[in-house]
Request: fold
Amino acid sequence: MAVFRVHKTKDFTVMSNHHLRDKNLTLKAKGLLSVILSLPDDWKYSIAGLSAICKEGTSAVKSALQELTDTGYVTVIKLYPNQTETGRIEYVYDIHETPQAPRKQGVENLPLESQQVENQGQLNTDVPSTDKPNTKDKTKKEDREELPYAEIIGYLNKKRGKNFRHTTADYRREIHARWVDEGKPDISEFVAKCKYVIDVKCAEWLGTDFENNLNPKTLFRAANFDRYANQSMPKKASKLQRQMELDEHTEPKVGSMRIDNRTGKTEVYKGNGVWEEYVSNYVPQEGDEDIEF
Reply:
């Protein structure tokens, strides 16, 4: 009978035994999670950093992270350009000692294999010191059925210069279905994703033959939404979009005229952001020629 002796030193790590006894994990995944949990709190986590302190390369590290994600030890949050300081899509990985409820937004939709190593998101070791579930995780509003339809549709109207109604049943049905498809994430996270879809398609389609596709039915359709959300922002905005963005920051000249898309009435600019209905003071004179149409 063989005898095993375990020689411990003072340099040790206290961690939960849960993942070590989880039969659903491979030794590779158990090992990587143990390594992560043993690192100091101020360690700068990245795919490249983890592969640098392990014998395995980046592919093996990514594979183990994928397994930990599938089993709930890693949760992934995707941040859109309007949520980051860099203005680029970023990913945040949260590491847990015990499995968490799976999120719809898993790494199956994240380009781990194709993304450059230096662009990988950071890993957050937000782990508890016991086997209890992590209570610091952001609470999802899963029971909230009312979504901010007015905010989402209103954002599209501002970008497109249209007046789509946020009360339209078809629009609300598509938006709510996408929220459910995403796994009912935090409302602010979902709204940010909707706005990014609007931004990226407006940048691509405004001023082109595809401009009419900038409507709620197309943008939030099941076959389109996730694909648009993972699309990179075009480097150059359309000429019309650049003009619209310029107009938003330039005050019209007093006396400028426009047509209100909602009422169809002509308005004149009075200054200080005030538009009034234009009323002609012209009085027909005798001898005016009739105009034939």
Q: What stands out?
A: The mean pLDDT is 75.
